[in-house]
Design goal:
Elements lengths: L1 H21 L4 H21 L9 E8 L2 E6 L2 H27 L5 H19 L4 H19 L5 H33 L16 H14 L11 H4 L5 H10 L1 H17 L1 H7 L3 H19 L4 H22 L2 H32 L15 H15 L6 H14 L4 H17 L1 H8 L15 H8 L6 H31 L8
Antiparallel strand pairs: 1-2
Organism: Sinimarinibacterium flocculans
Pfam families: Proton_antipo_M
Membrane topology: Multi-pass membrane protein
Amino acid sequence: MKAELMLLAMALPLCGAAGLLLLRKQPNLREAATLVAGVALAALVVSLWPYVDERPRLELWTWMPGLSFAFEMEPLGLLFASVAGCLWPVTSVYAIGYMRAAEEKNQTRFYFCFAIAIFAAMVIAFAGNGLTLFVGYEVLTLATWPLVAHKGTPEARKGARIYLITLLVTSIGLLLPALVWTYALTGTLEFRDGGILAGHASPQVLGILYALFLFGIGKAALMPFHRWLPSAMVAPTPVSALLHAVAVVKAGVFTVMKVTIYFFGMDAMRFSAVGQPMAWVAAFTIVVAAIIAIRQDNLKARLAYSTVSQLSYIVLGAALASQDALIEGALHIVTHAAGKITLFFCAGAIYVAAHKTKVSELDGLGPQMPFTFAAFTLAGMSIIGLPPLAGSWDKLLLMEGAVEAGTPVMMGVLLVSSLLGIAYLMPIPIRAFFMPERGAPAAADDPSGEARAARTRKIREAPWACVVPLCLTALACFFLFFFEDQLVEPLAHRLGYGWRLE
């Protein structure tokens, strides 16, 4: 029965998608269908945590020895499923407010593709082997491609082409050959504790294979295979939230961790230094993407390059293969999701309420949209790693992991990235709260303040369906600081680590 619950977790988004199509001519009921499916999925994945140590498994069919379509519940996968499942209803509420306020067309198609993307995320989360994961990975790409092209403009179609071509070329050209090579070496693609590759190849071969995997997992956005992510920012903001926080990039870094732990094995990674070259690629991506982010005036583009930088924290943690770095990777899946979805929610709320998309246009908006910019400030501080916000644990553990792995220079990379994070995130709320609004009359020219008041009345917060979700996810950045050890302790215990945050 416990194994069948995994199938139910995959069936709920499909049922939601079917309900959307049936109710497509009744917008209120259509949106109720996606909310009901989202809440049911969130409740289900959270209820599965008591059974995670039993590691229930379900095989649907076997293609050939060592290759089957199978599902298995383990802590890392359930962590990813919990992030995607719990954020789906929150994002759905936000999307209802955003899509209506922005008067977006083809809303049924939007919600349908969104539900299929969540289905694919569940397949990836509960995949019992590399074959099943690869199928879910490709379905996720195909389901989100129409969302990127949603607006139908030439710019949207171009961004969608870059998105689709990059992700398919990397997965079919690099990830698939890596899976075939792994099967040729080991005779299986099962996810096993301790890995399946140890003793089957030299360290040099394992290093090449690891590079194929990490570059082939294009959703992890390692440079130079990162351009799809900024290009996809032409999509509506709820899609950006899906790409950056709920499913797509999290599926990428989750796959990196699964491959590292269950294909290569942590002992083999440490003793043969398989991950060191890719650790340097991740460090390069962290710093360079953050520098590029500083130069972006478009708010969503700035946040996109921030994501490219932040994702490589997880890749770096996996490549370092130390206990603390591994736990950091698991934590960062959760904390980055909470912080980045808040930032994109805020960007969308600003667009809906003020029709502004550039950082240089945000001067003076803080007093008019206090909830939005306060939430942006909290989420930005969490992404940077400032306590008492959730992201601070990530930086601390990754620094400790770098020392444990014998690469203290990575501590310098992380410190530099934090300073760069301050440089590209904090000017946004500072401009909003402390700079005068552009074009506003000076006090000497408007002694009564009537002109200022009239301008202020023109802009208010976005609809409540946009503001409430961003406030909730911003608060999550605060509360996760105190409860992160309870989130990842099952993962640490399953991997044989007696670990707690202190």
